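S2.1 Query sequence (Denn domain-containing protein 5b-like protein)
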Amino acid sequence: MQTLQAMHITELSSGQNGTPPTARKGQDGHNTRSLPRHFKLSAHSPGAALGYYDSIKDKLLVTKSISLLCQQPYLYAAKTFLTNLYKCVPRHPGPGLSLESYVYNLLYNIPVPLPGKSLKFFVPNDEPAKLPLELVIHQPSSLLELPMLDYPLKDVFTWLGADYLIQLFTCVLLENQVLLRSADFHKLMVVSECITALLFPFSWQHVYVPILPASLHHFLDAPVPFIMGLHAQSEGGVLKIASEANLCYVDIDKQSSQFPEELPVFPHKVQFIAEIRALLNKYKVPHSGKTDNMVINYYNGDIMTSSLTLPGSGFHLPRRKHSLHDVLDWDRPEPEPQSDNLQRIVDIVKRSVNVDDIDPVEDTTEKILTPQEEYRETLDFNSAVREIFLNRFVQMFSSYEHFVIQPSQDKDEWINNRDSMHVFDKATFLSDQPTQHLPFLSRFLETQMFASLVDSKVMSTWSELDCNIKVFDQRISALKKKVGESIIRSMRYEPCTNIADTQQILEQRLTNVDFETNPPTEILPHRAAYFRSFPLLDNVALNKEPAQSSRRGQTQWKYKMKSMDTNGKPVTPQESQSPRPQTKLSADMSPALIAQANWTFVEKLLKDCKSKTKRMLVEKMGSEAVALGHGGESLSDVEENTLVASLCDLLERVWSHGLQNKQGKSALWSHLTMYQESEECNDTTKSIDANFLSPDLSNLQLETDVSPTRGTDKHKSPGERKTVGPEHLRPLPDSLIFDIRNVQAMTDIKTHIGYARAWVRLALEKKLLSRHLKTLLSDSALLRSQYKRSAFLRCEEEKEQFLYHLLTLNAVDYFCFTNNYPTTKLPYRVVIFPSRKASAATTSANSWIAISGTLCETNPVPIPKGALEFLFHHKNLGVLSTLRIGHDNTGLSPKWMVEHVVVRNEVTGHTFKFPCGRWLGRGIDDGSTERLLVGALVPRSIDSEELVESCSTPPRCRSPSIPRRPILSQVELQHMLGEAVNAIVKYHYRRECQDGSLTALLCGEGGLVPSLEQIFLFGFKNQRIFGRNFYVWDYFLRVKENFEISLLEEMDEYSQRLNRDRRVYTQSSQRFTILRCYCHLIDQINMFSQTLGKDGKFQLFICLAVREQLLHPMLRPMSDARSTADMYEENSFLRNPTLLTFLIHILEPLSEFHIVLEKSLTHGISSIC
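Output structure tokens follow.
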């Protein structure tokens, strides 16, 4: 102490030398309000500053503690022993045992009970003269019961409440970063231990520091999942965390919390909380009256609304209203409890939980429980709560064993290749789950704790199964005996039913003690009469181990208890505990150790990046293989969304590592905006090309819906406007700044984290993520100013590998931006390529287009007069599927020949090509003034000039509006139709059908409509008999006339035969239904689709016939019609019995599916049959 004081005086003296006295006086007497408030620890006392420590005459008081190290966390026993040991210090002479006697007895004569057994032993009483106090401890059975938990769960519910606890529990399950804060170290420890105990049968696999020393606060920047406890006074009220994107912050003392955005809802959350609250009420546990807003939104139906930061995620938490610094504001008043919301929760409890099934607890208002009785009630309550939590996992994963992929290799080979192998069929498992649970389950299946459980299950092939999984499997077996072996469980909430059984086992064990130790005896021949303070114990006496010590395992009772073990073999106490990797942290870490720990973080980030990109690549390639007709399960939208969200989390962790000064909640978005500001400052003197400015999405409401290109001049002659050059389809900028501006213009995103995720999704979809990040990191000056030298982003070799792994994602196509922001308004550029002929290049009519996509469709958008290119804005359409183009056939020259139409999303850059190659106008072609075009996504490898050149020539590919091809052979037609039907069948057997793709299968190239058109054109008689311009629709109209005549002529005959033959009536009734539906469908098409030509009406009829399941039943009546014999040869499909049978059989499977058509196909015609 004197040495430290001397060093302090020397430092003060050297610091004040060279400072003028007047200056020192001014500093001493200056206004101290400029200092931070927390620096002023006490009132200024000039006299106190002059006092120094003198070892000769001054006493120095230091803090001491009494600690007890145990093999098992017997919290109540250890606390009772230490507390009473301190109270038993004799302050005056009197009877009683020495302190050494109690300690000696505990060290050598009290063993840890074996699994399934209980033990009674003696500890000091609260006064020296009293007899030793009896305590009973137990060890749960490793095969039947949950591992021991001595920490009181009652306190956790009292401090946090059920709602906050479930939210915290969800964050821990999804392996978010969890930061607990309290001014009481005991609270930090209890909450940490209890929340991890509730994870059973899973176990926390990451950093676990319930009480973080003040000297290790830099570990809060670790880019890994963690559970850490922070003392409320250690940081002075100001706390800076590098990343808040994945942070779950809970202030235990203030009952305030901040949860990550886009946190999915725990399955059956409302009923789960209701069951817990029923138990809390039965045990009269006071708990927080606050109701989580998430529960209230669930009741109101708001749970299904789209998220602002991830609109397609389905389930999410409400937006956080305050930042972490707001939560850390100690002076913020607490909100009032919401009584209406509480009453709503109570109603749910009454409806969903049978409280009679829970054994009532005796009314303890009049009876005062002894400490031992309170401890037993705590164990009972802990057991009941943990059984409820375990029951949730049992219900959710009751069939998990069916999806575990057993290894086909030996143990060493399997371990070496573990990172590249699938051990759980996640796709199939998720396909059986309710849709509303997929956001949570898809993320939980990606966690390390779930992977560890499955790995342990697989490892049981070569070694003994883990005890935790044995208990879990035993509970699942009990459930299956009760409800059956079905893999798919009921969607109803099933409350826990075995609470009474487990509590009965516990009660019997504590009541019927298996072994009782002897009371302590005096070991000191001469003990002191009294002490003024807690003495130093006699270490010589305490180190004399007896011959029959329980620590040596040679006592007679221990052999007796072993023989009573159910397995017939000793089980070590550690087997009943769930293993948790412990991170050893020392407050005295040297710079070398800190550097090594930082390097470990860097290596882990790189490893995570490699594994995530590889997983995304493999899963996406597997999904595309399924789409091409190969085996396997495709990647669902929820799973893909989960993988992309995990990539966003990884990028946030990377950008948060080694950050010097935090600028916002998202470190990545802060870096992007600072780069943007830097570039804009550097480019202020440069001229700006208006064509490269990003569209202002925030002011779309003020703009007109359609704006023609500025370069389009109405005064140009038709010859000058007949083609569109490359300058009219200028390529979009691929710069980083362009994409940042596009994201900033999205008005439905409110947070920095939301902006960062939208930017990542956009860059990933445009296959520019690695390139953009490389550009961002190329600004070395900005990087050095924001990040420490030890940061991941400043490790050159690791950074290059990181960017390389991200570059591999360019091998697959993602629509993670397009599919997940359905409410965002986007600009679409339309370019029309008319015929090169001057007479067909323009139209005097008022033309329009209507576009359909996977998310929505537009109303008719007018095309500016004389414009071949224009821009319009609309809510996100998704992936474009069809385009309708038409006009009103007015003016002097309305006829218009359109070769192609190209539509480009000006934000994502996706370009869709719609081939046409047909006339629009009356009296030409088939007389259609409206065409339906099926689009195809243009690969990014095709540049604008190449696309313009290909669109300037007549289309070669097939679209419903393209002229008929040469007639194919019979075998080719059969093969073509078979492929079309097979594609539709595969589409409906996929796990998730993509909207819009069915239209391409029906009307696109090689689809059902063009195949059937070729079928009906095959075998026509000489067309000179019927005229040059004959269409299949003309044949359908004649068949309708035949059907109408047949219905009238045969009506009387069927009525007469009705009474004679019931069977004939049934057959006739089916035939009449088919004929009537056919005729009615033709009438509806003629009535509602007057703008369509004959080919368009034929296409509409085929699509509606498929929807009404009329396609294959109508073929035989059509073959019997009089017009068929007049218009078809004998070798046609309708007149050849063999070909007709083939046609009916090949189309019959389509009647097994519920066909849902786009509105663009139906023209408003509803289902009629």
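The longest helix spans residues 591-627. Residues 597-627+635-674+730-821 form a domain with the Methane Monooxygenase Hydroxylase; Chain G, domain 1 fold (CATH 1.20.58.900).
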